[in-house]
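I am still getting used to backbone structure tokens and would like to learn alongside you. Would you supply a protein for us yourself, any chain you care to pick? Start from the sequence, derive the backbone structure tokens from it, and show both lines together. Go ahead whenever you are ready, and we will take it from there.
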Amino acid sequence: MKNTYNLRSIAAKAIGQVLDQGQSLSTVLPGLQKSIADKDRALLQELCFGTLRVLPQLEWCLQQLMAKPLTGKQRPLHYLMMVGLYQMLHTRIPAHAILAETVEGAVALKRPQLKGLVNGVLRQFQRQQVELLQRMENNDSRFLHPSWLLKRLKQAYPDQWQQIVEANNQRPPMWLRVNRQHHSRDAYLALLAQADIEAFPHPEYGDALRLATPCAVTSLPGFEQGWVTVQDASAQGSVDLLDPQDGETILDLCCAPGGKTTHILEAAPKAHVLAVDVDKQRLVRVNENLQRLGLHAQVKQGDGREPHIWATGLTFDKILLDAPCSATGVIRRHPDIKWLRRDSDIAELARLQAEILEAIWPYLKPQGVLVYATCSILPDENSQQILSFLALHADARLVETGDIAQPGKQNLPDAQSGDGFYYAKLIKG
């Protein structure tokens, strides 16, 4: 039976919701995927993520192929043509199928009169593809990043910015966290080998394994039983630094979706963990993750700037603050970040981080440990943030993560390694 929907038009609508309405793909996609067959969900995801990953390339090509861009009510057709170009450039779908389905998308978007335009632009691209791509090699569109972010990366990493950009433009590797309550990492590696799944241990983070090829979680031995969790290696590094112990009272602040909360409890099942996040919706995921792994934490909704409301009378041995940030270290996982963030967001985020750090510090016990972490690679949110905090707090001491000249530890995204991530470990007193 033929589908009654057109996948390319659904992808065009999703891209419009990201670019015109500022919604994230992780918010938009789940609803759209419910309306289509299971077998089509992976392709819809590929079309949306892929188009946003290489957006400047597609935008530049369309500029060369059209006298003027489609705007207003015709704008969804602009995104539809982008989806068509993306398929031609970056998928193995046969050209005749791309043309037929993408042109038909104009009907699904209630613009049948523009079928000829979509068809003409895509066919013209087919003829000029090689020449267009050669010409594009001479401008910044080839880096597939917004100009404000390129400028910041060049400034912060004059020798490494191109490697960072290249890593951001790749598909992300799939990392697992082995639940040490069930298996050692080596034992789980052996189970993967038995299942013909090739994996590699991380050289630094003790629970982390990288799969040679990403796979469905249902293929992973014991996933339903909580033997393993999908989590990037760099995200795991923050809990390694925290070094949670049984009996400690630990705060996981800005905890959603709960990957670090569950990691803390796998490492120290008898720790008393309070997991707090400002977003009520995302706390649902925290509870789901705890449930799957059979772990218990106290979960509360609360603003990190107002611990007096949700932490009255409490002090903590350890605090993990995974601060709200630009997420510029996880662009390869969420390419929409490049188009959702603005240059002005960085100063606002740095202010918010400083407010949370300032508010939560009094709740840390003397000799207690606070690990400040972000999935950003911008110094404003990382080393500069910690430098300012240390200057204001004589009772804060940086340990295990750099020194005053270079405070904290900055991971950069890499094809064989984890995402871009920053950590600073502070001791009080």
The longest helix spans residues 115-136.
